[in-house]
Amino acid sequence: MCGALEPHELVELEAMARPVCYGQRQQMFAQDEPSDSVYNLTSGSVRLYRLLPDGRRQVVGFAIPGDFLGLSMSERTVYGAEALTAVTACKFNREAFAALVDERPHLLRRLYDLASHELSLAQEQMVIIGRRTAEERVVCFLIGLRKRWAQFNHNSVTVPLPMTRQDIADFLGLTIETVSRAVSKLAREKALLVVPDGVRLLDLERLEKIAAR
Amino acid sequence: MCGALEPHELVELEAMARPVCYGQRQQMFAQDEPSDSVYNLTSGSVRLYRLLPDGRRQVVGFAIPGDFLGLSMSERTVYGAEALTAVTACKFNREAFAALVDERPHLLRRLYDLASHELSLAQEQMVIIGRRTAEERVVCFLIGLRKRWAQFNHNSVTVPLPMTRQDIADFLGLTIETVSRAVSKLAREKALLVVPDGVRLLDLERLEKIAAR
DNA sequence: CGTTGAGTTGACCATCGTCAACAGGAGTGG
DNA sequence: CCACTCCTGTTGACGATGGTCAACTCAACG
Fold this sequence. Notes:
Two copies of one chain form a homodimer.
Chain A: H1 7-16, E1 18-22, E2 27-29, E3 37-43, E4 46-51, E5 57-63, E6 68-69, E7 80-83, E8 87-93, H2 94-102, H3 105-131, H4 134-149, E9 158-160, H5 165-172, H6 176-188, E10 192-195, E11 198-201, H7 204-212
Antiparallel strand pairs in A: 1-8, 2-7, 3-6, 3-8, 4-5, 4-7, 9-11, 10-11
Helix pairs in contact in A: 4-7, 5-6
The structure holds a DNA duplex.
């Protein structure tokens, strides 16, 4: 997002930012509460989830450094956010942020493009959940996550998984057991290696082929 | 969207609009082609879909009168659109529309809110596909569609279904047979009645309860 | 009257969810 | 240091949900 900013605007934005941090498992904000802030994640990762009427939970996404949270600009948050690891972020007062955006149309334009892109990703996720087998879903998830991490540790084959199996299962519309089995099977077949808090993708070619289908 | 406009802006917008119509099964635009237009649907309904690498197709949504199509403002369309019935729409040249939007920040703001809302709906759809049984998905679909039609035929209990069972199945991550079975079961239980090109929801209370879960 | 395409129904079976047992690590307290 | 608990994750057995394949109905259309 900051790519859309002139240098002097970056300064302006930074002046509004307040650095904040959260411990593991700490909630950044809940679902359906008045949204008074916008966050730009600088380190750590975050789980985004919705609660269903019956108390169950669906994970709608994971945020990693660089991602924005709470952008929807609606009165209330549409999902909750919880730190998966220790997290640092820049927190912006919502009104000030909105005011800045209002007098910088190209910023708003950038926000709009971001939202459109998110929408496109959500539709892709719908396809993944609706039309793919458990193994394919897990592989898509790992490949996709690797791509997102790639902007930092370039082209590393090790994917950090700060979230629990339960989170992954909730994200993919599976159960924890099925996720575990799929990962075990891929490990048995030497397509990947399970390491502490992550996996190492050994046979990228094969995995890409499964994800492509 | 037009609610965000001043009267004189509405006039301006209307001046740009070019009425177009499409026959049943006619493609309005394909996926991944240069997007040069924006549409506001005035009558009929439309199927929005993505093609998967292997040729299968996922329906990502249905548009009914009042809905906007092709709003994403990206260079290329992210989904295809095909008329389910005869369709009339207002077509706007993309550049002219973008120009108008650029000099009317509150219009852009409105677009942004629309995209955010779409995103929220897409996330809900993820939950429905990922965490609900076939019957629940079908009921959610019917109830949701009824709500959307409600802005026209107020509080009618008859839901038009211009799309095929295959479309519904592709939207819900099911097969055509499963959709058919779910509908038949609900009809047997007198929760709904199948009518030509639609269903009549007989036991709304029961259906709402299934959808609520 | 035959053809086509959408929809329905049935039989069978695979995938994935459920339930249960178990392993390993972290934290706690004696 | 060890026993204990708690939590996450793994593995197995079993069964239900929903997919696959096939036959059939029905309406539209020539």
